[in-house]
């Protein structure tokens, strides 16, 4: 219909079918102020009261219509809109409706402070449209309706042609030039003396049908043509449509009077696909690749030396003759001596100055580029030779030297994989600092493993490998179980590039014969078979937004190519110029900022603008680079690592990268102040320190900063527990109180980081907000400035239902929605859902008994809540339909903790019975359970709370009990580390990870607060009561009951006290962090970590 210009019919069909929401049409109607058509079109997809996003969409439209009537001084029209359109919102926010009504009394509604910046009609509509688009993209009712399905041009005609070809193929007497004139009946070639079909001249349906001579040759596309297995629609064309964009979180919460805030939408536009090429047959065997969704870099890692970089808002149209732009890294900022030749490098996806390196002798190095510190150095070793295949054992005996072919981080940086030149891949888990642990070893391929990448088919983290045995294999990243094997290449597979479009996951692979193939996770064969330029070693990568596909290859003769592929045809669209005629080695490349390509060639780094085939610039990084150096950008494109001669890695930086490195270096120098007799970096001798691993394996650290060496030689000189005993030794603040409460039962920072929410034992919620001002430009929480205890203008309180119970005796619980709009809470009575803007109770449900004792939102769906109950059950409740979906039984006492892992798709629960259970979130079956190990000689209360919280890696979790802290691995439900409370010491009241999971903040009954390193559960800082409690309370029983970590600032936490006070803590600005991590204890293979006791009266002697 669109191709035939039936525009009104198209939009009517869109609205009535609700199949596709045409954002461009919607924008045009809003810009033109056609409000009736705007609402009519919307009504095909949502109603006002469907959800909070829909409510806010309709409110913004009607508010704009109302303001425009007022601006034209058309009071009757404004009154009509107020009564007919806006009054429906008064039931949700009566105060707002009153304020809107009062605008009628003003000569100019801009006299209202919130509307003082309202401009003219055109600009106001544009501002509103920005907000509407965000709300629509965030609204689940529009999910999958904003992206038009992938259709080639004239797809309907193509199908008609194929149908007619099929019919003609079945004719008993097929004629060479069939005369097909109607679609009303099946075609059949008639004998020459048969009557002719009616003339189609007057039939409007056939006016644009192609003539018989325009049909594709029957032999090429006939029904009996042998083809590969069928291809799902999303693989039917080489990226023939723009990718869908997951929108950042949008507050669909309170509707407001003021104009929506303008925030730049970080959505690079997809270049239009080639519309000039017609496809008479859409289902040939040229199956193709699809665009990678924007934001892909957080989901899937790409092939060899590729990491797309995000640079929101960067336009492609720019002057092609300019000099090298300032945002390219050009300044040599660091020179690192690796010790052997780097073969592969990868920056950490989150901590962007951490560089992982694999070398030609099998070494792995982990560098903190900012401080020039090598955190870890590992030499190649098979972890368990007995489990290796005989061919591998024989190969290692014959030639023990093994090279690293590829190192790569997982999307969240919790794991990394290493592919070796002999058979195996090794996966390590990374826990920050120098804490790197063996995770999985897989005998993956016969011969070399040439590439490794992470992907998430079926939302399950997997590792994909390829090798000399001409296969691609997919492994479960948690267990090492093989999921898929793809066979079909006729030469060793050189590289892989996992990719996804909407719900379709697939893999591209290149082999040494130059073939490119694509595979779905269904073991049904390759979907693509193309020739790569160079026909030898080729890698592929997408731009960060997934709209452009590139490959880089080198032929056996040394001729190198970087090309961009035509997304519609599966053909080369653009070939970039500027390579040396004969490259001395295989050229490596990378992409950054949706704008630039870089490659290592001719002893230099060469850069291209993606839109220009001519070389943009080249740098030699002060000389000494390899002939074809290995290169790797960090995620932001501010740093670029490049391999040089003499086993050197150079890191070049742009201005942002230099600032980043300077910041890290300053933090590092602060932390190393206690060191004595420091050796200058240039004179530093190579030293080796043996550090015990979690499972007793030793790790060698070479070339470490002298601070570490000093620590190993004389820990008593270098490291000492940081004691905070005076108010002047940290920044702490007791939050102002407008009302007295007896004790704080629950505490949490809002996800935005600018407020703290507390639930008191009397069932009342308290909210403190920091204001944005000259002293606090960000408006984030800080211990340097007091916040305001906030209440809406109505003065109402968020108070839980308490039923017949005494709230002081109840077990309170609450959970906050991701966008901070709603809090779900209970204090022994019904569960209440509160609006955080108005404090109004939106709903109550689940009257006791049993009472709710713990609440947790499902990470993928805010409508699903896990509710722990007083009767030991866990109810999986759908808020939208008001229905309990599942009831989980496995505990014997009340539920005291719940935590979801969105990587493993499990729910971990803990109870007052000190039992831990793991539940599968797909079917809610119990997978494992285990009783907490209570330290010997310790008795525990009959109903002692056990809390659980997932580590940032979503695989390990923290267990908090009055007798201990422990770290568990989820899949095996195995205790990896435990810190027991000494029998004579005060019990733990609460603990939580810092936002980066590197620290654990722990409160005790004696009012002590301790900071542990999570990597080894060793104490690094102790805050004594005298540092934050006044002298009048120091001998009382006031102590923290709950502790909460800031969601963005890893060194900020808050505690809720038994006297109703809330304190927020930060280290001194001069210190920057809570103490210094203690050095590991050599020779300790115990899972129970040695650590000083924490009670105020206990000594600092280590305990076992």
From TrEMBL:
<feature type="repeat" description="WD">
    <location>
        <begin position="442"/>
        <end position="485"/>
    </location>
</feature>
<dbReference type="Pfam" id="PF00400">
    <property type="entry name" value="WD40"/>
</dbReference>
<feature type="repeat" description="WD">
    <location>
        <begin position="577"/>
        <end position="618"/>
    </location>
</feature>
<keyword id="KW-0853">WD repeat</keyword>
<protein>
    <submittedName>
        <fullName>Topless-related protein 1-like</fullName>
    </submittedName>
</protein>
<dbReference type="Pfam" id="PF21359">
    <property type="entry name" value="zf_topless"/>
</dbReference>
<dbReference type="InterPro" id="IPR006595">
    <property type="entry name" value="CTLH_C"/>
</dbReference>
<feature type="compositionally biased region" description="Polar residues">
    <location>
        <begin position="1094"/>
        <end position="1104"/>
    </location>
</feature>
<feature type="region of interest" description="Disordered">
    <location>
        <begin position="265"/>
        <end position="293"/>
    </location>
</feature>
<dbReference type="InterPro" id="IPR048419">
    <property type="entry name" value="Topless_Znf"/>
</dbReference>
<dbReference type="InterPro" id="IPR019775">
    <property type="entry name" value="WD40_repeat_CS"/>
</dbReference>
<feature type="domain" description="CTLH">
    <location>
        <begin position="19"/>
        <end position="77"/>
    </location>
</feature>
<feature type="region of interest" description="Disordered">
    <location>
        <begin position="1073"/>
        <end position="1104"/>
    </location>
</feature>
<dbReference type="Pfam" id="PF21889">
    <property type="entry name" value="TPR1-like_2nd"/>
</dbReference>
<keyword id="KW-0677">Repeat</keyword>
<feature type="repeat" description="WD">
    <location>
        <begin position="888"/>
        <end position="929"/>
    </location>
</feature>
<dbReference type="InterPro" id="IPR027728">
    <property type="entry name" value="Topless_fam"/>
</dbReference>
<dbReference type="InterPro" id="IPR011047">
    <property type="entry name" value="Quinoprotein_ADH-like_sf"/>
</dbReference>
<dbReference type="InterPro" id="IPR015943">
    <property type="entry name" value="WD40/YVTN_repeat-like_dom_sf"/>
</dbReference>
<dbReference type="InterPro" id="IPR001680">
    <property type="entry name" value="WD40_rpt"/>
</dbReference>
<dbReference type="InterPro" id="IPR054080">
    <property type="entry name" value="TPR1-like_2nd"/>
</dbReference>
């Amino acid at each position: 219909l669109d191709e035939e210009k039936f525009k009104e019919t198209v939009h009517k069909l869109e609205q009535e079918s609700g199949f596709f929401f045409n954002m461009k049409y919607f924008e045009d109607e809003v810009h033109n102020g056609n409000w009736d058509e705007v609402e009519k079109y919307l009504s095909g997809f949502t109603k006002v009261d469907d959800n909070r996003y829909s409510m806010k969409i309709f409110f913004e439209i009607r508010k704009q219509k109302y303001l425009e009537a007022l601006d034209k001084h058309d009071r009757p029209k404004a009154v009509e809109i107020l009564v007919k359109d806006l009054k429906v919102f008064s039931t949700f926010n009566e105060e707002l409706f009153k304020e809107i009504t009062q605008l009628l009394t003003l000569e100019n509604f801009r006299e209202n402070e919130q509307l003082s910046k309202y401009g003219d009609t055109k600009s106001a509509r544009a501002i509103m449209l920005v907000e509407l688009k965000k709300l629509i993209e965030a609204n689940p009712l529009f999910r999958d309706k904003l992206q038009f399905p992938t259709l080639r041009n004239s797809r309907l005609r193509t199908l008609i042609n194929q149908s007619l070809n099929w019919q003609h193929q079945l004719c008993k007497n097929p004629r060479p030039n069939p005369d097909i004139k109607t679609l009303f009946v099946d075609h059949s070639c008639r004998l020459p003396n048969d009557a002719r079909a009616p003339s189609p001249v007057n039939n409007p349906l056939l006016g644009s049908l192609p003539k018989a001579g325009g049909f594709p040759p029957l032999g090429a596309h006939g029904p009996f043509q042998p083809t590969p297995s069928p291809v799902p629609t999303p693989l039917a064309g080489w990226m023939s449509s723009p990718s869908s964009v997951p929108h950042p979180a949008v507050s669909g919460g309170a509707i407001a009077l003021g104009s929506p805030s303008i925030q730049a939408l970080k959505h690079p536009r997809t270049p239009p696909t080639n519309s000039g090429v017609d496809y008479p047959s859409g289902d040939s065997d040229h199956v193709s690749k699809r665009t990678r969704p924007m934001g892909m870099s957080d989901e899937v890692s790409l092939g060899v030396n590729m990491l797309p970089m995000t640079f929101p808002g960067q336009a492609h149209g720019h002057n092609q003759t300019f000099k090298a732009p300032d945002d390219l890294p050009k300044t040599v900022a660091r020179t690192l001596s690796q010790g052997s030749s780097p073969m592969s490098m990868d920056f950490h996806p989150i901590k962007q100055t951490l560089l992982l390196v694999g070398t030609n002798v099998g070494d792995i190095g982990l560098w903190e580029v900012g401080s020039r510190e090598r955190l870890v150095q590992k030499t190649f070793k098979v972890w368990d030779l007995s489990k290796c295949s005989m061919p591998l054992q024989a190969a290692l005996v014959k030639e023990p030297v093994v090279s690293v072919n590829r190192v790569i981080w997982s999307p969240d940086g919790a794991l990394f994989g290493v592919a070796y030149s002999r058979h195996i891949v090794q996966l390590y888990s990374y826990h920050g600092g120098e804490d790197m642990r063996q995770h999985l070893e897989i005998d993956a391929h016969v011969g070399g493993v040439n590439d490794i990448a992470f992907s998430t088919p079926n939302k399950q983290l997997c590792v994909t490998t390829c090798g000399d045995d001409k296969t691609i294999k997919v492994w479960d990243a948690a267990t090492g179980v093989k999921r898929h094997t793809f066979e079909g290449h006729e030469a060793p597979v050189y590289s892989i590039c996992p990719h996804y479009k909407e719900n379709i996951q697939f893999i591209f692979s290149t082999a040494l014969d130059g073939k490119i193939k694509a595979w779905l996770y269904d073991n049904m064969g390759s979907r693509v078979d193309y020739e790569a330029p160079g026909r030898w070693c080729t890698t592929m990568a997408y731009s960060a937004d997934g709209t452009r596909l590139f490959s880089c290859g080198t032929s056996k003769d040394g001729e190198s190519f970087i090309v961009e592929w035509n997304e519609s045809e599966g053909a080369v669209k653009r070939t970039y110029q500027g390579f040396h005629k004969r490259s001395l080695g295989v050229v490596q490349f990378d992409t950054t900022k949706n704008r630039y390509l870089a490659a290592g060639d001719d002893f230099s780094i060469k850069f291209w603008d993606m839109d220009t085939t001519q070389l943009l610039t080249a740098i030699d990084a002060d000389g000494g680079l390899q002939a074809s150096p290995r290169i790797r950008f960090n995620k932001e494109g501010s740093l670029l690592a490049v391999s040089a001669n003499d086993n050197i890695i150079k890191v070049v930086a742009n201005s942002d990268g230099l600032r980043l490195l300077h910041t890290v270096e300053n933090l590092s120098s602060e932390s190393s102040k206690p060191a004595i007799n420091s050796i200058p970096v240039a004179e530093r001798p190579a030293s080796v320190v043996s550090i015990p691993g979690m499972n007793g394996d030793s790790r060698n650290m070479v070339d470490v900063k002298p601070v570490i060496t000093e620590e190993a030689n004389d820990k008593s000189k270098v490291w000492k527990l940081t004691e905070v005993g005076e108010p002047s030794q940290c920044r702490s603040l007791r939050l102002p109180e407008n009302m007295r409460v007896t004790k704080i039962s629950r505490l949490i920072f809002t996800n935005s980081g600018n407020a703290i929410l507390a639930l008191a034992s009397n069932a009342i919620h308290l909210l403190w907000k920091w204001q944005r001002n000259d002293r606090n430009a960000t408006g984030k929480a800080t211990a340097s400035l007091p916040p305001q205890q906030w209440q809406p203008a109505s003065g109402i309180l968020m108070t839980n239902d308490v039923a017949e119970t005494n709230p002081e005796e109840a077990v309170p619980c609450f959970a906050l929605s991701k966008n901070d709009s709603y809090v779900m809470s209970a204090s022994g009575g019904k569960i209440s859902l509160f609006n955080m803007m108005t404090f109004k109770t939106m709903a109550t449900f689940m009257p006791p008994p049993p009472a709710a004792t713990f609440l947790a939102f499902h990470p993928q769906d805010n409508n699903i809540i896990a509710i722990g109950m007083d009767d030991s059950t866990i109810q999986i409740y759908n808020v939208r339909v008001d229905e309990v979906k599942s009831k989980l039984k496995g505990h014997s006492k009340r539920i005291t903790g719940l935590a979801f892992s969105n990587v493993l798709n499990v729910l971990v629960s803990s109870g007052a019975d000190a039992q831990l259970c793991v539940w599968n979130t797909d079917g809610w079956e119990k997978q494992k359970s285990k009783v907490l190990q209570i330290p010997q000689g310790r008795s525990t209360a009959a109903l002692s709370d056990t809390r659980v919280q997932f580590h940032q890696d979503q695989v390990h979790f923290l267990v908090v009990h009055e007798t201990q802290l422990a770290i568990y691995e989820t899949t095996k439900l195995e205790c990896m580390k435990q810190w027991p409370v000494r029998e004579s010491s005060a019990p733990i009241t609460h603990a939580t990870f810092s936002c980066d999971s590197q620290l654990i903040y722990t409160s005790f009954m004696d009012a002590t607060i301790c900071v542990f390193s999570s990597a080894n559960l060793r104490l690094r800082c102790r805050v004594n009561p005298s540092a934050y409690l006044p002298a009048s309370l120091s001998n009382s029983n006031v102590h923290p009951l709950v502790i909460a970590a800031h969601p963005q600032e890893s060194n900020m936490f808050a505690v809720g006290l038994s006297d109703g006070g809330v304190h927020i803590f930060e280290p001194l600005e001069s210190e920057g962090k809570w103490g210094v991590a203690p050095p590991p204890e050599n020779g300790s293979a115990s899972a129970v970590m040695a650590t000083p006791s924490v009670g105020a009266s206990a000594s600092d002697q280590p305990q076992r």
